[in-house]
Give the backbone structure.
Amino acid sequence: MAQMFIEGKWVDSESRETLKAVNPATSETLDTFPRGTREDARRAIDAAFAAKSKAEEMSAWERSKILYKVAQLLEQHSSEMSRLIALNVGKPIADSEAETARAVLVLTFAAEEAKRLYGQTIPLDSHPFPPGNKNRLGFTLREPIGVVGAISPFNFPLNLLLHKVAPAIAAGNTVVAKPPSDGPLPGITIAKLFEEAGLPPGILNVVTGSGSEVGMEIVESSKVDAISFTGDTGTGRLIAEKAAATNKRTILELGGHDPMLILDDADLEKAAKAAAVGVFGYSGQVCTATKRLIVENAAKDRFVKVFSEVVRNLKVGNPLERTTNVGPVINQSGLDKIQDLVGDALDDGAVLVEGGKRLDSTEYSRGFFFAPTLLDKVSPDMQIAQKEIFGPVAPVIRADDDSDAVAKANSTVYGLQASIFTTNMARGLKLAKKIKVGAVLINDRTNVRWDNAPFGGIKRSGLGREGVSLAITELTELKFVVANLD
Ligand code: NAP
């Protein structure tokens, strides 16, 4: 049985209850883990609170050394970790390996950034008031914010947890991390590597259990100073409301409905190849997955023809097999949601080109597999073009011209990432300025992220920015110090 990590010790829940960690490709139980309670969360928060002074006493050099060591240990254990990700969340093995490799990078960036927590000198003599500024020295310091609550989703169970934990520790904070209940094992396992790397007890604590109990206790606690959350927009809103009661800083990385705009001059083969990864990578369960294909009229029918061929050739299957392109979705409720959105779209006049149903032949019947689906003639007002799909479904929406494509791209409450395919870079750049999102990628898929580059959404897609150095900024306080030299 997996355990929680509190104050440097591996422990069960005070309730002794457990939950199952399930393989979504087979419904088999991989392991059990503690069903933590509010009391368990409080123990972890108290440990993190008590360890604050210990964390603050560590030098940047020491914090950096530990993060480098964890990166090194993770690299040594990368095949076991990748296999664990594939088994616990049904992610194809090559994508799981990419997630582990990126997690090593995140730790390495955090180790580097820990040594660059620079403040700034402020030229006070630029102010005529108060008198005497010529002889005052002003500068800023970046100080740890305190206890950071790190709450992460199932779809990148290792890397998204580390996008919170590693910058928090680099900045001298302590952490209470809550991994997702679907896919908790990678988050628990990484804590073992922090322990092995010599992180003092209490600086990182990992509590498992439901979001509404363990997660909420972390959000509501007056001993927690910041919440770094990645997950669903509805959960994020609830967290923001609750966190406001104790004036916590909240960094929210939420849902998306990312469009790929395919202009009439685009290279359609390239666009189709990118869309295959953008839409179907990890069965579409990525915040930045391509969730709408907005194609200009002159290219639309040709694109659907080229893309349907690509979709037909995707191999659905066991995530552990290297030839698999599309694995299962995470659970039954994810599957039901996809089926409902596709059903509604067809009722509302969308045309089914490929897929459209759950795969339930013997090979797939125990897992949560949905056939790679291509829908044509989707309109922006359909549910499928408004609600986050989180499944292997490509809705094609046609656009009359560039301004119609932009209007349709901007027609959801989300604003995470977007991509544009065109052979005319100037045209692409003009549109990039008009799309209301956190990032635009030209001639690339939507679901790319560089781990130390700015990342985050606008509108209902989020608040604040991640990317290791920006996450460190979000998880520190700026202190202004002035010395009067007179
Ligand atoms: P979720 O249901 O919101 O869960 C995310 C985390 O929040 C889990 O650890 C969950 O715990 C916890 N949680 C749930 N309710 C809570 C509450 N009331 N208080 C505190 N914590 C709570 O999201 P998900 O289904 O795991 O992930 C998919 C969503 O994440 C999608 O919307 C996707 O777009 C978004 N996402 C966004 C980004 C980004 O960077 N913008 C990246 C990846 C994913 P339990 O698991 O125990 O319920």
